[in-house]
Amino acid sequence: MKQLVTVGVERWAKKKVTRRERFLAVMEQVVPWDRLTQAAEPHWPREREGVRSRPSVDLPCMLRLHFVQRWYALADDALEDALHDSGALRRFVDIDFNTQSVPCASTMLEFRRLLESQSLLRTLLSEIDNFLRHQGLLMKPGSMAEAAIVATDGATLRRCG
User: Fold this and answer.
1) Orientation of helix 59-71 relative to helix 19-30, angle to 10°
2) How does DSSP assign 7-57, residue by residue?
3) What is the largest CA-CA distance in the chain?
4) pTM for this entry
5) Is 117 helix (H, G, I), strand (E, B) or coil?
6) Which of 12-16, 58-62, 119-123, 130-134 is least confident?
7) Residues paired with 148 in a beta bridge
8) What is the spatial distance between Cα 36 and Cα 23, in angstroms, rounded to a whole number?
9) Radius of gyration (Cα) for the chain, nearest Å?
């Protein structure tokens, strides 16, 4: 019979840092998360008193979920599955299985619709692009295995944007 290993012990025993972990560590540093949260905060619905619903997910977590979904070109269901499979993704979006569950695909869909209905997506993407451009970086979307952030020269930045 296989022995079950807890997530924390499994992570501690792991020797290799994956490309996904390296990419997410860079994104943690280069994306202006506080500025994105401030831009979206006025449009974020507050919980209504006396209304029972699923446990809410905080705005910073939802923003991170949304961008992970964009960077790795994941459908809502695929993102939900990826969060169940990947400790690196859960750590990046700040989900701890000991205290909370992974948001369902419909929660992510509702958030994306909120961003679109308030015209926030363009604002958030522009904020990220400008921030990266000032650091000499360019976002290159990819699949789950190959999303990357690359350093560029000024000529590449002028051609791309």
Assistant:
1) 130
2) HHHHHHH--PPPHHHHHHHHHHHHS-HHHHHHHHGGGSPPPPTT---SPP-
3) 58
4) 0.74
5) helix
6) 12-16
7) 140
8) 19
9) 17
